[in-house]
């Protein structure tokens, strides 16, 4: 799938210069004056990244990352600073930036950083799609099939599930077969893997 680069900079000349550099490896960037303009016009769900120039006093552009996440975007954010000061980089990272490039920016470094950011976003979108597909499968389960799934994941045998749910082993087998089919799983190990993909991280037992 083709990627897209979103460039946020209030300076049209600076946007043009960056666009010319990035055209060596990518189609033309999509340009925006500020974060409001970006969020208003951001409808593209292709893998990509956002380049944000930090020019305004107080670095108001740092809020772009937070606003993107609030809007449900997975796009990687790269902040571009006019100053190489450590404080600027630290502020960007605290705001959620995945990279910070200070001027003057080497062309090859810019292209490589963008490539890495797009690759991260592509992986995030794959995981996001997998979780959405899993949520849709889980939604098709009946309440009893969901109970059977949770019992299977907890390690109970058919006999144990029957006792826990006060049903016959034969009924357990029926619910289990329906659950496996709806989940698209061919084995218990696959069911467990799928279930843990969707299960909230906070509910998992820590192993570290």
Automatic annotation (TrEMBL):
Gene3D superfamilies: 3.40.50.2300, Winged helix-like DNA-binding domain superfamily/Winged helix DNA-binding domain. InterPro entries: CheY-like_superfamily, Sig_transdc_resp-reg_C-effctor, Sig_transdc_resp-reg_receiver, Tscrpt_reg_LuxR_C, WH-like_DNA-bd_sf. The keyword Transcription applies. PROSITE patterns: HTH_LUXR_1, HTH_LUXR_2, RESPONSE_REGULATORY. Residues 4-118 form the Response regulatory domain. Residues 134-199 form the HTH luxR-type domain. Keywords: DNA-binding, Transcription, Transcription regulation. It comes from the Bacteria. This is Two component LuxR family transcriptional regulator.
């Amino acid at each position: 799938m083709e990627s897209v680069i979103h460039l946020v900079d209030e300076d049209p000349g600076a946007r043009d210069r960056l666009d010319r550099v990035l055209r060596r490896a990518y189609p033309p960037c999509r340009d925006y004056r500020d974060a409001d303009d970006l969020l208003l016009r951001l409808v593209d769900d292709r893998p990509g990244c956002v380049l944000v120039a930090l020019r305004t006093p107080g670095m108001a552009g740092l809020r772009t990352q937070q606003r993107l996440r609030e809007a449900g975007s997975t796009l990687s954010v790269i902040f571009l600073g006019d100053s190489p000061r450590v404080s600027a980089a630290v502020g960007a990272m605290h705001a959620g930036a995945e990279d910070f490039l200070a001027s003057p920016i080497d062309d090859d470094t810019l292209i490589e950083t963008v490539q890495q950011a797009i690759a991260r976003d592509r992986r995030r979108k794959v995981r996001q799609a997998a979780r959405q597909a899993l949520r849709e499968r889980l939604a098709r389960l009946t309440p009893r099939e969901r109970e059977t799934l949770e019992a299977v994941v907890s390690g109970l045998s058919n006999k144990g599930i029957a006792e826990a749910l006060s049903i016959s082993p034969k009924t357990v087998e029926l619910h289990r077969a329906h659950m496996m089919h709806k989940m698209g799983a061919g084995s218990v190990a696959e069911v467990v893997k799928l279930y843990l993909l969707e299960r909230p991280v906070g509910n998992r037992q820590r192993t570290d």
